[in-house]
Amino acid sequence: MTGSAVTDPLIGAVSCPTGTLDPDATIVCRGIRIVTALDVARGSFTNTATAHGIGANEQPPLEAFG
Asked: pLDDT digits over 19-36, tens only?
């Protein structure tokens, strides 16, 4: 897979390593979010990110985990 990227509406900018990701390999993408007083008052913070990339032969990968 190439073109690895992550979309995360709560984090904003997320950086991922460039290059080719082999089958069954993993990468770590990083972003920063400051915990707010409202997060603390709620007692938890839930976040979901979406991974994107281009699979072999320009096809979308079969699975992407966020």
From this structure: 888 888 888 899 998 889
Tracing tokens 């069954």 back to the chain, one arrives at 24
CA angle (33, 38, 39) in 5-degree steps? 50
Q: Is residue 65 part of a domain?
A: no
Instruction: Specify the number of domains making up the chain.
Output: 1
Transcribe 1-66 into DSSP letters: -EEEEEE-TTT--EE---S---TT-----EE--PPPHHHHHHT------EEEEE-GGGPPPS----
Whole-model pTM: value is 0.65
Is 63 a domain residue?
Answer: no
Q: Which domain holds residue 35?
A: 2-58
- The structure tokens listed for 45 are 């913070």
